[in-house]
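Service request form, structural biology core

Requester: graduate student, group of Dr. S.
Request type: structure prediction, single chain
Budget code: on file
Notes: please return the result as structure tokens.

Sequence provided:
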Amino acid sequence: MSKKKPKIKSIGLIVEDNSDFTSFKKLISRIVEKDNLTFKKAIGGGCGKMKRKAASYASNLSKKGCDLVILAHDLDRNDLNVLQGELENIMTKSPAKYNFVCVPIEEIEGWFLSDPEGIKTVFNLTRKPKIKGNPESIPSPKEKLEEYIYQCSEKSKIYINTKHNDMLAEKLCLDQMKAKCISFALLYNHVQSYEY
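Core staff response, request fulfilled:
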């Protein structure tokens, strides 16, 4: 007999900015195949402030009815194990029933680099970006994505993360992200472990 999954009514997201909030919201809604999920947000406005205030953000989100709180913090140039440990330690202070720390490597744009064909389609590029190697091993993925889009559109399109990330989160292939990006696979499997 399979174990009953815990039921989640509302998800709280602690993220750096509004663009991350929209992207995570779209990705999670697609992962669980529900478009009527309730999300609430706490915007950190930069990693330093986010780390300092994460416990109080989590507490506020819990008071607002979030039974799952996800803290999303870019890896940037940090050591993954150290950062993950620090953030998980901070989140032990969260009163929410369920908590999860998500560390995109290096940032959410690394996940997006896992689907070159999708990038071509979303931006209507003249050719597909040639993205070599593991997307999570690409330094400065945001800048790399900008470069690919500019070059593959014959220098006619400019990528702006705050404007375009939600389109990428909406359209790119989740299976490719999951297969190529361990940090995305962890998020995927975690949100799949609940009932909505």
